[in-house]
User: Which sequence fits this backbone?
């Protein structure tokens, strides 16, 4: 059984290992060299210090996946929109861990008053990730064809979007 909880600094080694695997072997990230623990700590701390939710899935005392929200774009008008990222240990996909992480992340972002969530899925062949997002209310809003080149092939970016809370039915309650 998995537990979803807020990430902490002690989770960074496991997070770095999970992400590093995907950088080296997958298309979810367009990075080509895995960042080290210090860089992953810097990224985590930056998001945490800005108040964005950062979650881990834990099973049998080990971190088996993580998810976080971050700014969609840096300009002020985007401040109510977040982009999600989800990564799982490669040997544990298809077991509902991603669904629990994404559900927890959506709830945390709604609680914080965000209004839109964007998913940028690396590679249109990443059907499980696209379907995961669709099951959580995302809709595909476009595909950027062949915008990345990794592992000897061109990769698409699939853009999905989901309203959070009241979405665009009313102005945001407050500026951030």
Assistant:
């Amino acid at each position: 059984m998995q537990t979803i909880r807020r990430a902490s600094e002690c989770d960074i080694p496991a997070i770095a290992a999970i992400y590093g695997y995907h950088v080296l072997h997958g298309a979810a990230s367009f990075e080509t060299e895995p960042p080290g623990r210090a860089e992953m700590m810097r990224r985590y701390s930056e998001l945490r210090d800005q108040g964005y939710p950062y979650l881990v899935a834990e099973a049998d005392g080990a971190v088996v996946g993580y998810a976080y929200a971050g700014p969609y774009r840096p300009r002020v008008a985007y401040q109510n929109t977040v982009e999600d990222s989800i990564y799982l240990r490669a040997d544990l996909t298809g077991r509902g861990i991603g669904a629990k992480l994404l559900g927890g992340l959506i709830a945390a972002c709604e609680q914080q008053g965000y209004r839109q969530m964007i998913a940028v899925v690396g590679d249109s062949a990443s059907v499980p990730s696209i379907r995961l997002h669709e099951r959580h209310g995302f809709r595909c809003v476009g595909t950027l064809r062949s915008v990345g080149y990794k592992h000897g092939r061109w990769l698409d970016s699939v853009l999905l979007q989901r309203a959070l809370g009241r979405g665009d039915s009313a102005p945001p309650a407050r500026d951030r």
Notes: The first strand starts at residue 2 and ends at 6. The helical segments are 12-25, 37-49, 97-111, 127-135. The mean pLDDT is 96.
